[in-house]
Structure formats: structure tokens, C-alpha cells
């Protein structure tokens, strides 16, 4: 990808301190990636200035007993919700007034209320501006779509979590709650737009000046197919790079000085930020995960990853490349 590989020496910007991050790297637009090995609430309080973050993209532990390397994902419900509320309060402090907070959260079939209860907790601090459904797998039958171009038969695409037994369906989706402070934040909808199927729509409406329409709130973002989980995705609960990438693009790359992921795991949000040329700060309490995150970032900096993520359709690819080449406007970052 041709990023500079200088570490710890990039254009840090006013207020970005190098106070013992676990790892730092600098991308080709001088974007700074800083990963901190510490609890996110304390870390944010200590390192991030008020209003310094434009986009938060994150996926917290869901409290469903996932086997993390060190974190124990099974608290009493009240304590968990209280903790999520504390995290939300801190996020509100660091988020700019026009910022976006994208919270990816799922559940387990026997306990489907978790995402809603967490959203309710965060309602104390934010307005829920959009609810996006992250679709991991979908089946579309030819019969339902009729004479659709390029569709010669039934399709079933993506990866899902199979659920045994008769009671529950396979788990094929999660939520992305889009919180803002005002509920009025303007988004760059066409940055994640889709081409019109019926080209006669172009120019017909005032809003349809180009061959792109708003994607809507169902996002099909499949996981990459992997053969060796331990080596290729050594973390029990990641999101694909396409998820943070789409969230940041929806908020607007040019409006984004700094992205925060308080639960960064193996660094998916940081990789998305490098692809888009924006700075990122992340926290995790697990050395093993941050070590993997560092390796993934190093590999991307060395150009080992494909330029275009697999979730980008061939139709969107030229657009993606064009957007990536635009240098985002940047004002100073402000991590104290
Ligand atoms: C759902 S995972 C996030 C995975 C990440 N989105 C990715 O794609 O790699 C949640 C992460 O939160 C971390 N974690 C748990 N408690 C934490 C805390 N208090 N502060 C920061 N990170 C924490 C866990 O170690 C785990 O990696």
C-alpha cells in the first residue's frame, strides 16, 4: 500500500502525546495509529481531551460468556449495564458535538434483549440517530426477485453462526446503533451508496444526480473466508474491516480527524483507519490481542493486504480507490 513505516515519529499534531502507548504507527497521510494496553474508561479519561474524537466505532463485550483470552465475559447484568453506561458517559465527553458513535452489538438467541438494554443505558447520554442491521449472511431466492439482472438462480451468501436445536434460528445479523449528541448530524450517505438498478432514476429526482443512492440501513458485510482461525483470526469476536470502514465513510472521511475504538481487540478499526487515511486511537486490556493488532497493522503497512477489501463490490471499487486518494482535511488531533 505504500505507507510510511516510521513508528512513533509521525506528524502527531497538537496535543497527541506519546504517553506510553503499547504500539504506534504512521500511515501515508501521516495518520497516527496509537494502541493502549489499558482499561478504556481510565485510558480515555487520562489520554483524551473533551470533543477530540469525531467517530467512535466499537464492539464491546456482549456479556454472553464469550471465551476471551483474559477478559471474563459474564458479569451480573446490572453491573454490565452500569459499566456500559460509564463507558458511554466517557465517550460523550470525548466525542465532538457533531461526532458519531457507532456501537456494534449482538446477543445470543436465549438472551436477545442485551443490545436493547445497552442501547437504553446509552440513551441517557446520546440520541439514537440510526439503527443499522449488520447482515452477515442472507439467502435470496430467484423467485422473489423475478427477472433481476445477473441473477440466474437462488443465492445464499456470507457466514453465520449455526445454532443447534429446534427453538432458534441461525444467527445471521447484529446491530450497529448510530448514536449522536443531537440526532441532527449530517452524514455522507453516498460515500457508502449503491448504484441504481434502474438507471432511468438518475436525474429524475433532485437527489438522484449521480448513479448512487443511499444504501439504507441493512448492510451486508460478510466475514472473510478463513481456513485457519487460530492464525488468521485469533480472537473469538471480531468484526470485518468493512464494518468500521463503512461507519467512518458514512460519517464522512473529510469530517474525521480522529477515530476511537475503546475495545479495539485485534485492531480491525485501526486497519480501516489506515485504509482511509485517518488517525485512530484504541484501547484493549489484552496483550495478546494488541500484539496481533500490531502485526496486522505492520503487514498492512508493508503492503501485504489487498488494496481493496473483499466486501467492496466490483462496481464500487473505482469509487473506493478514488476516495482513498483524496487527502482528508485534517485539523490537529488532541490526545493529551
Ligand atoms: C468484541 S471484542 C472487540 C473486537 C474488535 N472489534 C476486533 O474486531 O478485533 C471486545 C474486546 O474488549 C476487550 N476488553 C474487555 N474489557 C475491556 C476494558 N475494560 N477496556 C478495554 N478493552 C476491554 C476484550 O479484550 C476484547 O478484545
Secondary-structure map:
Layout: E1 23-26, E2 32-37, H1 40-47, E3 53-58, H2 77-94, E4 95-105, H3 114-122, E5 127-135, E6 137-140, H4 142-145, E7 155-158, E8 173-180, E9 218-220, H5 229-232, H6 242-251, E10 258-261, H7 268-276, E11 279-284, H8 287-301, H9 317-325
Parallel strand pairs: 2-11, 3-4, 3-10, 5-9, 10-11
Antiparallel strand pairs: 1-2, 4-8, 5-8, 6-7
Bound molecules: S-adenosylmethionine (SAM).
S-adenosylmethionine (SAM) binds at residues 39-40, 59-61, 68, 71, 235, 237-239, 262-263, 265-266, 268, 283-286, 289.
Strand content: 15-25%
At the third CATH level, what is the topology name?
Answer: Rossmann fold
Measured on Cα atoms, how large is the radius of gyration?
Answer: 20 Å
Helix segment tally: 9
Q: How many strands in all?
A: 11
Q: Tell me the span between the first and last alpha carbons.
A: 30 Å
Q: Give the distinct bound molecules.
A: S-adenosylmethionine
The overall pLDDT average reads 85
The appropriate CATH architecture is 3-Layer(aba) Sandwich
Return the CATH class: Alpha Beta
Backbone structural class: alpha/beta
Biggest sheet strand order reads 1-2-11-10-3-4-8-5-9
Description of the molecule:
The protein is α/β, with parallel strands linked by helices. The chain has one domain: 3-Layer(aba) Sandwich (Rossmann fold). Helices cover 26% and strands 19% of the residues. It is built from nine helices and eleven strands. β10, α7 and β11 form a beta-alpha-beta unit. Bound molecules: S-adenosylmethionine (SAM). S-adenosylmethionine binds next to β11.
Amino acid at each position: 500500500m505504500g505507507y510510511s513505516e516510521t513508528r512513533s515519529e509521525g506528524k502527531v499534531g497538537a496535543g497527541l502525546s506519546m504517553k506510553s502507548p503499547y504500539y504506534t504507527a504512521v500511515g501515508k497521510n501521516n495518520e497516527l495509529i496509537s494502541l493502549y494496553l489499558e482499561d478504556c474508561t481510565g485510558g480515555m479519561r487520562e489520554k483524551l481531551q473533551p470533543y477530540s474524537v469525531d467517530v467512535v466505532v466499537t464492539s464491546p463485550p456482549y456479556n454472553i460468556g464469550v471465551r476471551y483470552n483474559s477478559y471474563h465475559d459474564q458479569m451480573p447484568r446490572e453491573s454490565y449495564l452500569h459499566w456500559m453506561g460509564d463507558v458511554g458517559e466517557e465517550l460523550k465527553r470525548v466525542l465532538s458535538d457533531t461526532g458519531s458513535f457507532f456501537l456494534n452489538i449482538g446477543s445470543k438467541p436465549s438472551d436477545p434483549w442485551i443490545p436493547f438494554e445497552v442501547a437504553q443505558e446509552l440513551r441517557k447520554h446520546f440520541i439514537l440517530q440510526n439503527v443499522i442491521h449488520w447482515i452477515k449472511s442472507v439467502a435470496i431466492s430467484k423467485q422473489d426477485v423475478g427477472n433481476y439482472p445477473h441473477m440466474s438462480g437462488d443465492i445464499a451468501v456470507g457466514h453465520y453462526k449455526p445454532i443447534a436445536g429446534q427453538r432458534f434460528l441461525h444467527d445471521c445479523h447484529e446491530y450497529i446503533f448510530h448514536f449522536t449528541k443531537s440526532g441532527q448530524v449530517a452524514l455522507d450517505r453516498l460515500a457508502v451508496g449503491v448504484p441504481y438498478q434502474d438507471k432511468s432514476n438518475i436525474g429524475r429526482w433532485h437527489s438522484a444526480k449521480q448513479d448512487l443512492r443511499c444504501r439504507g440501513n441493512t448492510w451486508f458485510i460478510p466475514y472473510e473466508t478463513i481456513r485457519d482461525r487460530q492464525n488468521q483470526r485469533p480472537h473469538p469476536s471480531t468484526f470485518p474491516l468493512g464494518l468500521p470502514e463503512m461507519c467512518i465513510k458514512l460519517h464522512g472521511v473529510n469530517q474525521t480527524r480522529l477515530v476511537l475504538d475503546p475495545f479495539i481487540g485485534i485492531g480491525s478499526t485501526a486497519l480501516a483507519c489506515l485504509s482511509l487515511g485517518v488517525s485512530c486511537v484504541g484501547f484493549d486490556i489484552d496483550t495478546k490481542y494488541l500484539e496481533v493488532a500490531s502485526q496486522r497493522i505492520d503487514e498492512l503497512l508493508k503492503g501485504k493486504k489487498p488494496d481493496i477489501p473483499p466486501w467492496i463490490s466490483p462496481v464500487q471499487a473505482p469509487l473506493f480507490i478514488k476516495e482513498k486518494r483524496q487527502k482528508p482535511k485534517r485539523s490537529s488531533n488532541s490526545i493529551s
